[in-house]
Amino acid sequence: MSTFGKLFRVTTYGESHCPSVGAIIDGCPPGLELDVSDIQVQLSRRRPGQSNLTTPRNEKDLVHLQSGTEHGVTLGTPIGLLVKNEDQRPHDYSETDLYPRPSHADYTYLEKYGVKASSGGGRSSARETIGRVAAGAIAEKYLKAVYGIEIVAFVSSVGKIHLPALLSPPSLTPSDDNEDNDNVDDAISEEFRSLLTTITRDEVDKHPTRCPHSQTAEKMTQRIIRAKDASDSIGGTVTCVIRNVPAGLGEPVFDKFEAELAHAMLSIPATKAFEIGSGFRGTEVPGSKHNDAFIRRPDGSLGTKTNWSGGVQGGITNGEAIYFRIGFKSPATISQAQATAQYDGTPGTLAARGRHDPCVVPRAVPIVESMAAIVVMDQLLQQEARKAAASRLPPIKTLPPTMVMPKGV
Amino acid sequence: MSTFGKLFRVTTYGESHCPSVGAIIDGCPPGLELDVSDIQVQLSRRRPGQSNLTTPRNEKDLVHLQSGTEHGVTLGTPIGLLVKNEDQRPHDYSETDLYPRPSHADYTYLEKYGVKASSGGGRSSARETIGRVAAGAIAEKYLKAVYGIEIVAFVSSVGKIHLPALLSPPSLTPSDDNEDNDNVDDAISEEFRSLLTTITRDEVDKHPTRCPHSQTAEKMTQRIIRAKDASDSIGGTVTCVIRNVPAGLGEPVFDKFEAELAHAMLSIPATKAFEIGSGFRGTEVPGSKHNDAFIRRPDGSLGTKTNWSGGVQGGITNGEAIYFRIGFKSPATISQAQATAQYDGTPGTLAARGRHDPCVVPRAVPIVESMAAIVVMDQLLQQEARKAAASRLPPIKTLPPTMVMPKGV
Amino acid sequence: MSTFGKLFRVTTYGESHCPSVGAIIDGCPPGLELDVSDIQVQLSRRRPGQSNLTTPRNEKDLVHLQSGTEHGVTLGTPIGLLVKNEDQRPHDYSETDLYPRPSHADYTYLEKYGVKASSGGGRSSARETIGRVAAGAIAEKYLKAVYGIEIVAFVSSVGKIHLPALLSPPSLTPSDDNEDNDNVDDAISEEFRSLLTTITRDEVDKHPTRCPHSQTAEKMTQRIIRAKDASDSIGGTVTCVIRNVPAGLGEPVFDKFEAELAHAMLSIPATKAFEIGSGFRGTEVPGSKHNDAFIRRPDGSLGTKTNWSGGVQGGITNGEAIYFRIGFKSPATISQAQATAQYDGTPGTLAARGRHDPCVVPRAVPIVESMAAIVVMDQLLQQEARKAAASRLPPIKTLPPTMVMPKGV
Amino acid sequence: MSTFGKLFRVTTYGESHCPSVGAIIDGCPPGLELDVSDIQVQLSRRRPGQSNLTTPRNEKDLVHLQSGTEHGVTLGTPIGLLVKNEDQRPHDYSETDLYPRPSHADYTYLEKYGVKASSGGGRSSARETIGRVAAGAIAEKYLKAVYGIEIVAFVSSVGKIHLPALLSPPSLTPSDDNEDNDNVDDAISEEFRSLLTTITRDEVDKHPTRCPHSQTAEKMTQRIIRAKDASDSIGGTVTCVIRNVPAGLGEPVFDKFEAELAHAMLSIPATKAFEIGSGFRGTEVPGSKHNDAFIRRPDGSLGTKTNWSGGVQGGITNGEAIYFRIGFKSPATISQAQATAQYDGTPGTLAARGRHDPCVVPRAVPIVESMAAIVVMDQLLQQEARKAAASRLPPIKTLPPTMVMPKGV
User: Which positions carry the signal peptide feature in this UniProt record (chains A, B, C, D) (predicted)?
Assistant: First the structure.
């Protein structure tokens, strides 16, 4: 359905060709200073028309708050908001009346609903994500104010152009499989790990591709322009880091932190893959090298020496940085001619008209950050309930030694 | 929490060291022939002690049905079931009273709950998955009986040993990035795609590793034995295919088919990565080569020529085979000595005692299949509600031409 | 939270003093003809200013559809809608800055949220019900089109003025307790039962009180005017009947039809009581007289001779008319002076300014109907899923005789 | 479905004629001392065979804890438990193979599920409530330990025999409607209000009817025996009070405290009516007499002088005692001959065999208490999340005067 979250809940409505898109955000804690500009800043990072790499549609995407705040402070009641669709022309996709776009949602929406919306894929429209970005911005405001949580996403690949700092290639030939080669350090470079601890949104936004490595960013630009010039499209990946999340978030067993995160990320249009921490590459190294040994932090708490786990162990956050990567396929709508079939099966050629993003990953960055914020906020509230309830219990006089909390924790 | 699903719902309880583990499965359609043996067969594939590759604990894992059926037929009421823990010794993990196991859930469970269970990671125990496998077996019985749906998972890699038929390596060097190289066919081989259409559980079970390619299976065995001999562990991947799923499943926008699937898969212990269809590799090729062109099937319906989408477009199934891959990290519990810290921060060395799987992927196969079955069943019921409700509506007399269902569909 | 329903879901936002109130309605079946006027008619019945019995605020309450339909047909996607608050003056309740209104939500909202909204009771505002009424109107459109379901509510009492046809008084003195007196027919009169089978909204709307018995309606009017003249308020009851609901709706065990209905009704502001069928009075008669004997209906199906059950047995609808009664307390906000205490405990006298309904039941009628429609729609979709799924199963060859469906059903 | 609650969740399974009934209780705070006996005491109050007023079936109803505790302390993980059905004979209800019992769930279950369980009404069995009582006992243990919350239910009427202290009869004749008669004090007597503040379970259990007024209890006994001797049955009401609930519980707008409570109560078999506070009677008096004026409590906090609201205002608890009344119809299964129809419509006479309760209210008392405890616990956890999250926010420097928390609160 169109609702995400248990205690911090987002419900969205709207598609491309209706009067507005919007959302209701329920469960925001009361007493948070919240201004329209807190939301607008992320919406503006999401909107098209920011550079020559994105669709030239110039939607202003101004958010209108409807409820839930007074004098710039949240009341704890649902926050209603909407963004008008300035470009509600029914559609200029006339071929798509006959042809379902290959790899687009046109056909599956028809199979699901049995009626054909003028926009074809209906809610699979990127405009639906506006509500999510608004909700995420609200969650982030809280998370930053209370825990100093920082969520930064960036483009880690476009086509075959990867951020070199990111990841060395996994070794896929069995000949590589020997003790000397069982090293996870090869998989995730020191440089990349360092990037995760320092990267900021300002750095990310320096280049229109939102890749924080300028030389790679330049190559990515060329790759996107090549796709655009060929009336084609190209995919890519977004990597995201969440810093300063307290330990203990994530609900065993079905709603593990990474399970909710994967759910959230794969609900973003065009996503096909998710990995957390060392991800697929980490499956190739032995436990002795992949395990994150514990160390005492300066403040006396436990931390880990390495962080191949990506901040989550057993589905619960451990206080280390959470990082993950999402794969976005190349956009399905291209104006290049495609040999395909009409709805009725007649073979033919489709060349979609209209203005389309040749590559979605730069604009996906704030969407990824927003869904991450929503997941953290929702899991945080669930853990707050448990912790507060447990903290009120009288101490147990004779807790068995095995259950005694080890000293120092 | 411990419940998964909206209309087909599974709730589980239990950990390693309590009297039993079990589940309540709610929402199973009434009138389905269901016998204990339908469930037992998958539980037996899951249980340890099946070969020298798994932990020698010999748990019989016999399921006891408590409710929801009569005379071998489901009543539509909740199915209660349990499996006794025959091995409930409090634990023989005495070092773990002092040490949280690195990359295990011991520390995070303590952070979350504030009390220390004797098993450390509590519900992160693999035994918790018994309830899921039982639920999945019930869902599968229905899906097979009504739609002929086939769900087959297999081991596609152990450490660096990959099923050669599976996937060619993604090209990660920018130098490879040119028009001649933009070919998704390189990414997912013809041989692999053919395997997906034919593979059966019998073939998968021929080898204890559950890899359907005998030569690779043998190398995987050597890799697992190398880990075992070194008191170490190793990760791997499981690939799963679901055939014959009707088009139209998956709930826009937050509960897309692949979002629910990713949620389900990343709720399985030790998972770190998920990809559907062409996944991460698919992000590297342009839309013109990645898009799945439509074709008319012999029965007149629309199919796709290729299936890089993995059976899902816009979050909704399109009737093609659904395939996905899950990454499992190497098990955290190893008996090799590890330099780490105690709960109180004191540095030291931990060598976990007890019997542990050096590699979980062979046993993970039925768990993956089960979670897949639960997701399909739950999404199917949601779509049944919509379709049935829509089908009862009187036809609209003058539906605008753009909303008219294209001929032939 | 602000969401109601599982498959047909309503989420609302807004309070009195913000730009708009609105709702997102998710799960509406696709292909339903739906026009703004379908919604407006019930909103207009709800709005204030319809007669001298209600508050003179003249809110036009025009609904603006934002999404989910095209060319007057539902798409199956979420329907966003809003109604502007034309009267958003911060508030003219200055005494209520010092005084929590007795029996109002001012104090409890402050306890819950810790911040003080200018409207005091925030979401307890009657304007929040606009979203519900809109959602209910959409559900009703479907239910009427497909099943001919009719939902009619009316005012059955104001203060001590009861619809005489309604209910004879329960006998509360033990001396009445003897065999001769064990008669449920005394409790619910024949005249009342007949009214339930024929009453229409047109008849209900003939009188501003919405009581369908003109003499009683006149007395009710006098009672309300007496309250108004005394700067006081008065409570009452609303009775509602739902006709033509198919048998089989209601989810055992926690979400029984009447449990969901009671939940829905007691979520309406100012409600304090709910009873279905013979209700409290029915508890006084023996089973032999209260049981609804089965009879064969002309069409061969089973019906019941009487209907003390109110159309629900074991939490599941049986195809008979569903009727229930809801108690609304007298409105808390009165302009008569009240001896009470300020937020800080200082004793004092409060005379609330502003314009307030002396009696809410006439305007509550469409709200009750709407919540009833939402419950029926949601339960219907859940049962559709089950029925459709069960209907696809192959027949069981040798069903045990006890499980065989009795002939004729 | 078979799950109740959001953060404190109960899922039950089982019916009369299967191996066991049971439940999974998820979300119990960790660190609570919990022993089997805490649960058994309420199960024993619920079980049949306690006096000659109930069915002579002697089920021991011993609970078996399966998980979620260690050394008598909760772990925070799901608590699995079960009670064996010692009396699993398929059934001795042979007439009910032909006849659906009037006003029972036999017919509606068949309509819902399309298969006939040997027990007829399946999950409508009173045995299903065992899981609820167990869950409620766990919730109560927490609520008592942390807040000193006391939940006491008692029988307030059997047939026409009402606890005289309870309620004076509502005046239903219009002639009574004048200013002199607008007094809510007549509706709920001082004696009854006093009873609510002091009543204990020990006092309730002194008499087998569980009516705390010995003379009335005696008359109730006679009434039940009269029903039993006539092979008939009789209904009644249960009143429940919850003391010491903190202010601020209840989720606007759909999940108001009383809405959840009504949902919970009307999910108990045989219930038909619910009222909170002054309930239906309170609708008859004007606001000026019904409003609960605020007073300063000795500890400086705000209380109310009267409590016609029943501890809930605007759907949120205000710290006063919560009291409510539930109507239970007379049990449908009677051994007296009834003229009715068979499943196939054939008219005939049914005289149900077997052993049945002539009146359920005495045994319903612990079920009502348990469902009340579950609702309070679940709402408490939701409010804990909000409060904890809000409490961590930095103070707002310049909160507008209208939003400033009034002094003294």
Answer: none
